Amino acid sequence: MLKPGISDVQGQVVERSLPALGWENVSGVRVGKHLEFEVEGMSLDLLKAQVEQMCERFLANTVIESYRVDIREA
Amino acid sequence: MKPRIAVVVFPGSNCEQDVVHALRSEGADADYAWHGDADLGGADGVVLPGGFAHGDYLRTGAIARFSPVMDAVRALADDGKPVLGICNGFQILAEAHLVSGALIKNEGLRFLCVWTDITVEDTDTIATRACEKGQRLRIPINHYEGNYRADGQPRVAFRYVDNPNGAWENIAGVSNDAGNVVGLMPHPERASHELLGSADGRFILTSLIESCCVPSRT
Fold first, then answer.
1. How far apart are CA B121 and CA B56, in angstroms?
2. Which of B62, B105, B149 sits opposite A10 (nearest CB)?
3. Exposure winner among A55, B28, B96, B180, fewest CB in 10 A?
4. Tens place of pLDDT per residue across chain A (74 aa)
5. Full-model pTM
6. Which residue in chain A is spatially nearest to B103 when comparing CA positions?
7. What is the ipTM of this complex?
């Protein structure tokens, strides 16, 4: 997700389109990315740390984006 | 002396031939280097050309920055040698943190392929040493993600006269602190001959070539 303060032009365009469809009470639309994948290991804590590293180094550009990790056991 | 300049080809690069041709026309010994190569064969300088390296998947430059050749590019940069990133090459340098900031989608959400006028803000970089401060250059842009966002206070090499893409502070190009790594969105190789509509890009290309001929800047 683009950090607050980084203008999200995609979000703005989506937001401007909503009133035309009858939804006039929506504001603050932000468009982000959603990645899903499977990762194997014994400890949820270790896996969370690994995925956070993956985000820091590659999956997100922390100059402009923030990220959130959500891990569920299969 | 004819400086050797490596022009890196990533899968999806598409401006490498133009860059090599333009650099050779200016007298450099320019040749291609493959992104999978671990070294640059002792090149005096390197150019990351425009295109869509690795399809620009995930983010522009995000995958390219991990190409094997990037270790050699970083080593050259750390050595004070000239590194120039043009358009997609700029995006790759930013992702690799060899220059600061990031490039996001253009403000108007349009791919822009237009002529721009830019001004030279700093003549002490490898891409501007043959220019004069405040000099105006007419060079085209060709990108969807050229909207520069800063991370701290970047060293500005070029600014747009009329901001085409929403870039912060009209920034068209930046350098690292040492001035030996420069990234810019406009394409100097596409303004390298009067027949193309402008030869102003030659100031940038000859700056690069001259910089390859002088001792490292570190």
1. 29
2. B105
3. A55
4. 999 989 899 999 999 999 999 999 999 999 999 999 999 998 999 999 999 999 999 999 999 999 999 999 88
5. 0.94
6. A64
7. 0.85
